[in-house]
């Protein structure tokens, strides 16, 4: 049985109620639960069909809403045959099934995505769909093709990013999405705690067709910062190699580097890291002085560090970052840590809920600020001599300073070469 998580009243009254059609309508609720969503609908003038797999929920809804124009069916929504029936509004907080997927219409999809797909087919032209969906459906590369396909069938009109723990005891991130079916293209309004952004074409903001308001806000803000900047930037992928470890089991066994070993690392100064000159052909070995970041972590962007152990294989929970050419390692590490402390960058790179995962694909496309060591010399010297916590704090301070400065123009990686003795 899938877990039931009732929609909070503040979501119903504060967001969903605002987007209900005003005319008399025929409504479908594919996963009615305790009726929280249909509570916001006037059942005296509208007809409603509610579905739920749980007999106890169906019995409750029939008793609670008796006397209204409401039909309740106990069935699996995805298996239910609606014949030719269509609806003006489909409103749904589908059951959540974690990371599990099902096969629906020949595709492997999360349960929530399958609910949305079937609901679109049951919605009338010019009808509306209002869905509460988890971050796993709203953003990330795994369902990018699915979201692109959705945008060919419906128009995403509004996306609301809900606050954390909006569902009691659930750490995941959720959004309320409002779609209109077969209408002329309209701008999408993305609303989060950071503010709102109006976007003309969803697919042009991120290459994953993200519907996540916080991510969209961060991408737009970061692009604006680059365009208005007089500093210098270079594309991350042009100066760094990025390698995910190959060890996929026995994480805690001796002989390879894993996230649980990070705390056991001896302190490694930036000065020592700069002096290291390991050149090993095997990219799946991590060496003294290499940069690394955790692939999954609650404080993901804070985990950028310098490896100080013996050469050994590393697990798939570690991302190794090494300069492609003979760049000054200390200044590059300084710039990279400053970049990862940018709030917008964090919202772009850190995906998922709870322990976030790193969007490595997007990391490679970031623009890295160059020359910060010259702009912030005193901070840079403190950064060189500081410990890990000191470096994070300095990187955060520099981000505050940069927010009040004009900065960068993109430059080529060739200009970053340093001379060797």
UniProtKB/TrEMBL annotation:
<dbReference type="GO" id="GO:0032259">
    <property type="term" value="P:methylation"/>
</dbReference>
<keyword id="KW-0949">S-adenosyl-L-methionine</keyword>
<dbReference type="InterPro" id="IPR002052">
    <property type="entry name" value="DNA_methylase_N6_adenine_CS"/>
</dbReference>
<dbReference type="GO" id="GO:0009007">
    <property type="term" value="F:site-specific DNA-methyltransferase (adenine-specific) activity"/>
</dbReference>
<dbReference type="Pfam" id="PF07669">
    <property type="entry name" value="Eco57I"/>
</dbReference>
<keyword id="KW-0808">Transferase</keyword>
<dbReference type="InterPro" id="IPR029063">
    <property type="entry name" value="SAM-dependent_MTases_sf"/>
</dbReference>
<dbReference type="GO" id="GO:0003676">
    <property type="term" value="F:nucleic acid binding"/>
</dbReference>
<keyword id="KW-0489">Methyltransferase</keyword>
<keyword id="KW-0680">Restriction system</keyword>
<feature type="domain" description="Type II methyltransferase M.TaqI-like">
    <location>
        <begin position="75"/>
        <end position="164"/>
    </location>
</feature>
<dbReference type="InterPro" id="IPR050953">
    <property type="entry name" value="N4_N6_ade-DNA_methylase"/>
</dbReference>
<comment type="similarity">
    <text>Belongs to the N(4)/N(6)-methyltransferase family.</text>
</comment>
<dbReference type="GO" id="GO:0009307">
    <property type="term" value="P:DNA restriction-modification system"/>
</dbReference>
<dbReference type="InterPro" id="IPR011639">
    <property type="entry name" value="MethylTrfase_TaqI-like_dom"/>
</dbReference>
<protein>
    <recommendedName>
        <fullName>site-specific DNA-methyltransferase (adenine-specific)</fullName>
        <ecNumber>2.1.1.72</ecNumber>
    </recommendedName>
</protein>
